[in-house]
């Protein structure tokens, strides 16, 4: 309670100290002139004073009365200059037109730069979805999660996966948000593509160090994905066909300038083609396949000049199936997963200095496995499922006290319900449903963050107070945050940060059957919420126009980590003898990012040296062992060459080169009965693995190239993209298994050399 009182006193003092008779506020929204969508991260500069518009396109700049000159800069848009005379608070909404790309502009310690990738504060990056058309597509799909994996300090869980591994953590330690709603599974088709359809996405921000106090609930990082808001000016449509899926986008005004809609749908079609061929040929035997779909929708209402209301929805599902038909008997096996997210968001300008965002949201994840046996005289259906629900609300405030002082504060709260195992049997001998333990979690987290500029020095202290309650025990944790930036000249920037995080939920994998079904659970029994602290420091230097180099180092310590080495069914079904294995861990590393823009050639080169280690807390010696995602070295080279660019035609050649050290791996020491993972002819036994990794998989290398061509046609455009995945045909193992027939170790390779094509028609 003392801490809460201090926070309120601090806020009150800041507000009282902000009134100055000679200072006025110029404020408003920055948006796209062609679509009406807001532009977050726009630079607004007046002399040596400047800010960035927030995530919702709002800005507020405090200036002296008189004649002022304002410049609005945004990557890929024409610079807007406004000269006005102000004697009182003035609202100025600005609409920007796409066109000339800008050079780097320095604004009070914050920078933007011209490139495919935008780098903000320490450990913070932004990628625009429309720029992904210039990069190689993964199996014909532009994928924002695959692009995030090309950044320093960020890796991939497994070959082909869409999971993001940040600075040696695990995938569940990354908070993944879609329009501010947590997403619990980002994979389509086992990670072949992510659930984020690029046609419906505006962009993504990722944070791996110096994380703002408004984010919490995870240990390692944050990935925030934003949907398009819908065109407020005119109706637009697009159709996209790729190697694995087709998608359609519809957007436009419901009432011009006042309300808009956006809806996008995508579905894979390989299963339809394959199953159709099998049916036409009346093929007997096993028919395998997989399918996925997703739908994004959004409504945007300008209620009045001070209030905007948004409603967004995402739903998607994956299904893997194996159908066997012979002699009138049918055996069907299927499993899959699906997400639903929805949010209602209200943006309000409360005053010329104060902006608020209120969000109410819902997130749902379910996994299911179904076995059906049908004969002339017998019919059996068995299902296994798990469900995760989350209801939440958050309110945030941005208070622009003066050009050198900005305060952010707010509150997050959520209620989560977990039902990890529900089993149903329906056959002639029984018809019953069995449910395992159910879990609940309530979270409540107020926070504040203060941004103070003192000449060339910027300091951002923050504090988040987190309260967790699972109906059995409650925990209250303080999470101090601190970011500092020193910019002694226009070429050099020095950065440092300290972050404390807590995580009350865990992701568990069902390893007993080998199927990729995962569970989410809160802390329970003698387990406590995981906690971490991280310190990081960096240096950024502008070498010449369009070229920068950034070096960052970090050290992260983690405690109370759950280490699962037994079948999770024992755990969720109330086995009192189940012993939780708790570990602590630490990771450290050095990251380098070199961005360049040489006229027609741009891109980046990143290199990371990183270690991720764990130790059992029950071990008195605390002997460390490499964690599953311990990759000492990984290097990424992203190149984009502009072959031709004009008002009518643009052509690009692109390439990605990826090298990663092999991850620690578990080789079996015993066998247990079970069903093997899909695609493997290994149905008699499953391997039993040791407690810690006993080998390391071989190093990973992949080279992808692509050619894209965009041309204006009539009132729209058409875009072709031709990609070759794994040009060198390197045999990168997805997994290693022991063949039951000969006992030899073999590797499963998911992606040999693979061409892909994508066609998009916009009108």
Protein traits:
Immunoglobulin-like, 763 residues, 4 helices, 61% strand, 5% helix, 2 domains, Maltoporin, Chain A, mainly beta, six-stranded mixed sheet, 22-stranded antiparallel β-barrel
Please provide a written account of the structure.
This protein is mainly beta and 763 residues long. The chain folds into two domains: 1-102, Carboxypeptidase-like, regulatory domain (Immunoglobulin-like, Sandwich), CATH 2.60.40; 189-197 and 205-762, TonB-dependent receptor, beta-barrel domain (Maltoporin, Chain A), CATH 2.40.170.20. Helix content is 5%, strand content 61%. The protein has a 22-stranded antiparallel barrel. Strand 37 and strand 38 (547-563) form a beta hairpin. The longest helix has 15 residues, at 2-16.
Total number of distinct structural domains: 2
Largest sheet: 22 strands, antiparallel, barrel
CA(first)-CA(last) distance: 57 Å
CATH topology of the largest domain: Maltoporin, Chain A
Structural class: mainly beta
Overall geometry: globular
Q: Looking at this structure, what is the CATH superfamily of the largest domain?
A: TonB-dependent receptor, beta-barrel domain
pLDDT under 50 segments (min length 5)?
A: 15-19, 100-114, 511-515, 675-683
Percent range of helical residues: under 10%
Quick check: average pLDDT? 84
Beta-strand level of the residues, as a percent range? over 45%
The CATH C-level class name of the largest domain: Mainly Beta
Level-2 CATH architecture of the largest domain: Beta Barrel
């Amino acid at each position: 309670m003392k801490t809460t009182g201090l926070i309120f006193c601090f806020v009150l003092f800041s507000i009282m100290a902000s009134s100055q008779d000679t200072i006025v506020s110029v404020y408003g929204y920055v948006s796209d002139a062609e679509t009406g969508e807001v532009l977050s991260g726009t630079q607004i500069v007046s002399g040596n004073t400047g800010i960035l518009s927030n995530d919702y396109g709002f800005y507020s700049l405090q200036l002296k009365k008189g004649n002022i000159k304002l410049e609005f800069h945004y990557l890929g848009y024409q610079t807007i200059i406004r000269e006005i005379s102000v004697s009182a608070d003035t609202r100025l909404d600005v609409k920007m037109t796409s066109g000339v790309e800008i050079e780097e502009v320095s604004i009070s310690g914050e920078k933007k730069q011209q490139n495919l990738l935008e780098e903000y504060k320490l450990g913070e990056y932004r990628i625009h979805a429309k720029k992904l058309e210039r990069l190689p597509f993964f199996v014909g799909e532009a994928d924002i999660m695959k692009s995030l994996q090309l950044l320093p300090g960020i890796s991939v869980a497994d070959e082909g996966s869409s999971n993001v591994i940040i600075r040696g953590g695990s995938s569940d330690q990354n908070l993944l948000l879609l329009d501010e709603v947590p997403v619990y599974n980002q994979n389509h088709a086992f990670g072949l593509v992510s659930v984020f359809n690029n046609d419906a996405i505006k962009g993504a921000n990722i944070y791996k160090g110096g994380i703002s106090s408004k984010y919490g609930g995870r240990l390692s990082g944050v990935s925030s994905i934003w949907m398009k808001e819908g065109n407020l000016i005119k109706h637009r449509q697009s159709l996209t066909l790729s190697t694995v899926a087709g998608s359609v986008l519809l957007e436009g005004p419901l009432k011009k300038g006042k309300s808009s809609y956006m809806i996008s749908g995508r579905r894979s079609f390989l299963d339809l083609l394959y199953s159709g061929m099998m049916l036409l040929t009346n093929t007997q035997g096993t028919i395998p396949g997989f399918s996925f779909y997703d739908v994004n929708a959004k409504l945007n209402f300008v209620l009045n000049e001070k209030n905007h209301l948004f409603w967004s929805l995402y739903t998607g599902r994956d299904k893997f199936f194996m159908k066997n038909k012979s002699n009138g008997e049918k055996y069907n096996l299927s499993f899959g997963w699906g997400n639903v997210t929805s949010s209602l968001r209200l943006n309000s300008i409360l005053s010329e200095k104060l902006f608020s965002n209120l969000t109410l949201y819902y997130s749902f994840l379910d996994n299911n496995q179904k076995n059906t046996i049908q004969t002339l005289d017998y019919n059996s259906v068995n299902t296994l499922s798990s469900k995760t629900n989350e209801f939440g609300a958050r309110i945030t405030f941005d208070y622009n006290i003066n050009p050198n002082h900005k305060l952010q504060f707010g509150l997050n709260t959520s209620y989560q319900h977990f039902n990890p195992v529900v089993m149903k049997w329906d056959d002639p001998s029984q018809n019953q449903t069995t449910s395992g333990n159910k879990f609940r979690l309530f979270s409540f987290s107020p926070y504040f963050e203060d941004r103070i500029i003192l000449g060339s020095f910027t300091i951002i202290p923050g504090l988040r107070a987190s309260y967790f309650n699972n109906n059995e025990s409650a925990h209250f944790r303080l999470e101090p945050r601190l970011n500092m930036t020193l910019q002694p000249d226009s070429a050099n920037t020095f950065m440092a940060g300290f972050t404390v995080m807590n995580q009350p939920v865990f992701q568990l994998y069902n390893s007993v059957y080998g199927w990729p079904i995962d569970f989410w659970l809160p802390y329970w029994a003698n387990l406590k919420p995981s906690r971490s602290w991280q310190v990081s420091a960096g240096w950024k230097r502008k070498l010449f126009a369009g070229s920068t180099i950034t070096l960052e180092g970090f050290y992260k310590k983690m405690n109370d980590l759950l280490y699962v080495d037994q079948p999770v069914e024992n755990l969720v079904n109330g086995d009192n003898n189940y012993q939780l294995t708790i570990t602590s861990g630490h990771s450290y590393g050095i990251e380098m990012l070199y961005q360049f823009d040489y006229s027609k050639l741009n891109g980046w080169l990143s290199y990371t040296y990183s270690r991720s280690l764990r130790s059992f807390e029950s071990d008195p010696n605390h002997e460390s062992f490499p964690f599953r995602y311990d990759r000492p070295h990984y290097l990424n080279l992203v190149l984009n060459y502009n072959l031709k660019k004009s008002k009518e035609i643009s052509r690009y050649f692109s390439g990605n080169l990826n090298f990663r050290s092999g991850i620690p791996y578990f080789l079996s020491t015993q066998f247990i009965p079970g069903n093997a993972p899909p695609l493997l002819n290994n149905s008699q036994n499953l391997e039993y693995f040791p407690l810690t990794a006993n080998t390391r998989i071989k190093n990973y290398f992949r080279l992808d190239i692509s050619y894209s061509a965009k041309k204006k046609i009539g009132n729209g455009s058409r875009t072709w993209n031709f990609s070759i995945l794994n040009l060198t045909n390197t045999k990168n193992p997805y997994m290693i298994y022991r063949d039951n027939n000969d006992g030899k170790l073999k590797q499963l390779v998911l992606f040999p050399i693979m061409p892909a094509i994508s066609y998009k028609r916009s009108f």
